[in-house]
Amino acid sequence: MNNNLPWSWGEAVVSGKEIPGPHPEIMRAATRAVGVRASPGRIYLWLCQLRRAPYSYDWIDNFGRRSPRQADPELCHLERGQSVMTIFTLTDFEPDASITLRMKPGWPRNAFGDLSLQYRAERIDDEFSRLSVVLWMPPIGKVLAKQRRYLLAWGDLMMMRKQLLVLRNLAENDDASGR
User: What is the tens place of the pLDDT at every residue in 168-178?
Assistant: First the structure.
């Protein structure tokens, strides 16, 4: 476990993806990861459910509605440009492995910055997989930009930790998915 909070939480994550944006030198990466006793395909099924709900603290980011606890396999039919968790756009995906998102323009980007993130499900051994997220964060705004990014990293840590633990639980206990 890495003690580099708020930038890293969970198992070590190595990002093989090129840093997005025109100025990669100003980006800061935050990583979050959790081990899951499920296949990457089953984890991916639950990642695709992020199209309809955030699976975090629903009372904060889902207007009090509980995120669905039964997976809809139809949501695995992904296309670039689809909306994910209300404030993100799907920019790339690899079936049964990863989804890449970017913060939508307008108020989400003004509030949180031009974030990009990649969720990845990868096999560790016969029994376990890793669900990881790499979040690329530019400074936010012009005034106190790095300080705002640092505060956002703490908020993201709390929300994404909950999200990954919920997704892990759902993937480990979902017998109906057949993946």
Answer: 999 999 765 44
